[in-house]
Amino acid sequence: MSKLIINDKSYNSRLIVGTGKYKDLTETKQAILNSGAEMVTVAIRRMNIGQDKNSPNLLDYLDPKLFTILPNTAGCYNAKDAVRTCQLAAEILEGKKLVKLEVLGDDKTLYPNVTETIKAAEQLVKEDFKIMVYTTDDHIVAKELENIGCVSIMPLASPIGSGLGIQNEYNLLTIKENSTVPIIVDAGVGTASDASKVMELGCDGVLMNTAIACAKDPLLMATAMKKAVESGYDAYHAGRIPKKFHASASSPKEGNVCD
Amino acid sequence: MVISTKMRVILNKDVQIIPDSISIDGLLEHLNIEIKYIAIEVNETIVPKSEYNTFNLKENDNIEIIHAVGGG
Prior knowledge:
The complex is a heterodimer of chains A (259) and B (72).
Chain A: E1 4-6, E2 9-11, E3 15-18, H1 25-35, E4 39-46, H2 49-52, H3 58-61, E5 68-71, H4 79-92, E6 98-101, H5 114-126, E7 130-135, H6 139-148, E8 152-155, H7 169-178, E9 184-186, H8 192-200, E10 205-208, H9 210-213, H10 218-238
Parallel strand pairs in A: 3-4, 3-10, 4-5, 6-7, 7-8, 9-10
Antiparallel strand pairs in A: 1-2
Chain B: E1 6-11, E2 14-19, H1 24-31, E3 38-42, E4 45-47, E5 62-70
Parallel strand pairs in B: 1-5
Antiparallel strand pairs in B: 1-2, 3-4, 3-5
């Protein structure tokens, strides 16, 4: 598998994983190690002063020297809050400016609010942030975000945490066809075949959280997702056979003992 | 004359009584919070870590201590 290059840094893994919803930080770390991911997302939140001060810090488990930490703007519903969250993230991460921009539209679908996402991206680019942007599977919007200067476009496969898999593969294909930056499908993956399918479409990577963290056995699912991404990538580059309406025998007709 | 040694601030949305004119460094020590992988806003402005020892907090300041948690 060739390396994935994002913001001038190369990665051996094309799987990016989230760190939410795990039982504890030990499970979080082991799942990430099993997945082979080198980039992990985190959320930016107020510290719970009464409870958090003695509990272990996520970044003590996931050393930012070993993993690329991708702070998200989850929970932001407008551009102003998303920009503020990115500024806080850069302060937490000692000036690092790679962020996952997501500006949501509503609680029920967690669909991106595209107008606010574009507004936030324009401002963040001016502040020299490097933006990996969560967006709809709309190639017009994807191209606009690329033109603004986002370093990666991350269209959804289906709603966040839904596990519905790819709902419109043709939209993802069109986004990939029109893009010159990495396309990482973010959200909606339910199981390994979904991740493989994303890669078989020719996308550059997959980002997931719930599919691993909420599996019955998260550590085993993390391993499965690693293999799925690698298999899908290899299958895409190997070139699948065309689909045919009729059968095509694999064994030779010549010398058939039944004749 | 009564010298006030405590002041009221808003800390992460809750009212807290903390030592008067304490620096951010002092506040973090008071709260037993390590200065690592955190960000602090005072009255909606981020204070860089390099200023924690010189930035003195005032009565009614709105302080936010932010960190990274698990997320997708």
